[in-house]
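Reminder to self: tokens first, then the designed residues, so the page reads top to bottom the way the pipeline ran.
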């Protein structure tokens, strides 16, 4: 398949019957050309990119056009930037296709899928040490961003109802979090009129750790967000330490501030390979936890989870009871109609792997991350920001070196030439002068692939070290994606 930029006028012959298309069809600007190997006689030779064709085409032709477009995407296995699962086994693929038509909201038509959803978040409540998992409450979501927003909304509504009961103003809610939070928390504060209060990270305090928390918390604070696996670096924020800082604030001021744990990544890592780490419902100030099923939950994109410690912690005013397709059902998601297939895939993975299987998968990723960080630490050009000891993610900086003609953005570009996507980007506010590169190790990134990457990395560094003048800088840009 190829594109051309002819100036011939479009004749709109996008059809497959005998009344349109001929040997004089021309490929026009903004059109997708059909490979002659797949084009049928008297069928259109091109499709417009931006208008729906007037007539239909054969399914084989439409499939081939879309297939050829999509195959130009990158190789997901070489993408060391994304946290999102890019592979599942053949049984999961079969289950995915069998459940592609299921609408998660329609619990009347798909009661077993709804039951499976309930089983999954009860399993997570148990995994995260809820005092009474059967008295917890949770839901699936499109992803952990939606799960975070539901957690934030519950904090805001609880705070508002308590303030109204005490006849106090409710017009200035704020949420306290690290300056390195994922962008979904910025969205939450923007969309739901909450003041974000960012505690800046620094080289002395690389994560939100309770330091100076009393400068940010006041009577209008709806909660504190603690991140298990900061997106920038993969580091855990010490939830227990944050909770202890809030205990001291309560002793002095009487303010009882709750914690929501954003466990987008670490929520499916820590229980399996750091089981003694107290970050979940074992910490009494933690009232809600969210995670991504489609990250280290090992499910295809489109799934998040949020769980509250107990049913009473989710304000009743956030739950809608709706009549839909013959039944009445409660719902408290931001989305309404959404896929049910990923929920079934999560249940499949829980059954397929079990606790021990998840432990082995996550430990393998962790071991690969530690191997990679160890190799990079030994290279003269780099200093680690962290070593992947938390989630299997780590970042490194460039050492000062006189007369160096390149930076991490140049290394990012050289690695991309070999197929590897390894983002370089500035750290958040107050540390923007620090540029890092980050690797995310996911299931399927083997020791063999890690060795191949290190070989390519050393080759790229050797090439860059041999430069006699700086690389052109016009196209330098961060490859970082939340």
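Designed residues (482 positions):
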């Amino acid at each position: 398949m190829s594109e051309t930029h002819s100036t011939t006028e479009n004749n709109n012959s996008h059809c497959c019957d005998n009344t349109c298309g001929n040997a004089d069809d021309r490929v026009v600007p903004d059109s997708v050309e059909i490979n002659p190997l797949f084009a049928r006689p008297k069928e259109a030779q091109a499709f417009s990119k931006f208008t729906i064709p007037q007539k239909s085409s054969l399914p084989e032709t439409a499939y081939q056009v879309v297939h050829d477009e999509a195959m130009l995407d990158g190789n997901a296995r070489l993408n060391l930037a994304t946290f999102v699962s890019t592979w599942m086994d053949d049984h999961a693929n079969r289950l995915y296709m069998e459940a592609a038509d299921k609408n998660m909201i329609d619990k009347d038509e798909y009661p077993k899928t709804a039951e499976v959803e309930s089983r999954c978040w009860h399993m997570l409540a148990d995994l995260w040490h809820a005092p009474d998992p059967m008295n917890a409450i949770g839901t699936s979501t499109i992803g952990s961003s939606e799960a975070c927003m539901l957690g934030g909304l519950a904090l805001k509504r609880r705070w508002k109802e308590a303030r109204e009961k005490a006849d106090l103003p409710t017009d200035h809610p704020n949420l306290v979090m690290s300056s390195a939070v994922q962008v979904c928390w910025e969205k939450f504060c923007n969309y739901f009129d909450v003041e974000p209060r960012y505690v800046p990270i620094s080289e002395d305090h690389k994560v939100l750790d309770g330091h100076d928390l009393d400068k940010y918390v006041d009577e209008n604070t709806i909660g504190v967000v603690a991140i298990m696996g900061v997106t920038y670096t993969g580091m855990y924020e010490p939830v227990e330490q944050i909770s202890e800082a809030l205990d001291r604030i309560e002793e002095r001021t009487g303010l009882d501030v709750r914690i929501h744990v954003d466990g987008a990544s670490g929520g499916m890592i820590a229980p399996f390979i750091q089981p003694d780490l107290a970050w979940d419902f074992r910490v009494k100030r933690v009232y809600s936890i969210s995670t991504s099923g489609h990250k280290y939950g090992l499910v295809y994109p489109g799934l998040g989870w949020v769980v509250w410690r107990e049913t009473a912690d989710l304000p009743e005013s956030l739950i809608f009871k709706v009549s839909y397709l013959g039944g009445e059902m409660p719902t408290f998601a931001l989305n309404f109609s959404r896929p049910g297939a990923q929920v079934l895939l999560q249940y499949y993975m829980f059954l397929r792997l079990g606790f021990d299987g998840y432990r082995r998968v996550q430990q393998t990723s962790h071991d690969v991350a530690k191997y990679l960080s160890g190799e990079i630490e030994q290279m003269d050009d780099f200093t680690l920001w962290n070593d992947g000891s938390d989630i299997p993610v780590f970042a490194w900086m460039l050492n000062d070196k006189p007369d160096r003609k390149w930076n991490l953005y140049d290394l990012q570009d050289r690695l991309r030439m070999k197929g590897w996507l390894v983002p370089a980007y500035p750290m958040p506010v107050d540390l923007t002068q620090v540029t890092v590169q980050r690797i995310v190790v996911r299931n399927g990134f083997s020791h063999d692939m890690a060795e191949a990457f290190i070989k390519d990395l050393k080759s790229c560094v050797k090439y860059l070290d041999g430069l006699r003048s700086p690389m052109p800088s016009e196209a330098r840009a961060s490859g970082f994606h939340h």
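The chain has three domains: 1-73, 91-350, 358-465.
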